[in-house]
Amino acid sequence: MAKLTKTQKLRLEKLDPEAMYDFDEALKTLREHSKKKFDETIEVAMNLGVDPRHADQMVRGMVSLPSGTGKDVKVAVFARGENADKALAAGADKVGAEDLMEDMQNGNLDYDRVIATPDMMGVVGRLGKVLGPKGLMPNPKLGTVTPNVEQAVKDAKGGQVEFRVEKQGIIHSGIGKMSFTDEALKANFLAFTSAIARAKPSGAKGKYIQKVSLTSSMGPGLKIDNAGIEGA
Questions:
Q1: Is the predicted pLDDT of residue 228 greater than 80, yes or no?
Q2: Which residues form a coiled coil (predicted)?
Q3: Could you point out which of 55, 166, 175, 179 has its C-alpha 20 to 30 Å from the C-alpha of 44?
Q4: CATH no. for residue 145?
C-alpha cells in the first residue's frame, strides 16, 4: 500500500472503527480519503450467517450491476460455427474449441469469465483441474453454460458479476470505481446486496446478513447500517 500523507493519517485516526454509516455517508468518507492518484475500486463485503462447507448453506450466483463495473472484462467462449460467430460479434476476447482448450492447458488463463455452449462441455470438462481452482469453470446454474452465448457475453461485458461465499462466510465484490457518480455506485450497491439477500440458502439459520462494510482500494473499511438492506 502506498504511503499516506500526514493529512490522510490524521483523518484516519479520527475515524471511529465502530461507527455505523449509511451508504451515502460511507461513500462521502471514502471520497474524502481517496489519494486520487488512480481510479480506486469501491468494494462491498458482507459477513453472512452461513457455513459454506454444507451444501445447503452455499451462496453463489450472478448479479447485473446497473451502472457497470468500470472494468474491462476478458471473456473466453467455447463454441463452434454460428455460435462462435455470435460470440465474437458480441465482443468475446477469445473463441475456440479444442484449440482454446490446448491454449488454456498451456497456461493461457488471463480471463475473467469462461462461457461455453452445452455441446462443448465434453471439451471443457477436460479443463476441470485448470479452470476449477480459478473459479472459471462454466456452470449452467450461473448461466455460463448456455446456447445463448451472445447474451452471456454481453452480460459479462456489461456489468454482470459473479459472487461466491468464502469459507469464513464472507462475500465481497467490487461495485464500481471512485470516478462513478454517487447515484451510480448506490444503484450497484443496492443491486448487489439485494441479490445476496435473495440468494439466502435453505440451510441458513439465525441472522443471515450479519455485517456489511464499504471500502476502496486504498481507503478504510466502514461499517454500513444493515437496516436499509433487503433481507438483513
A1: no
A2: none
A3: 55
A4: 3.40.50.790
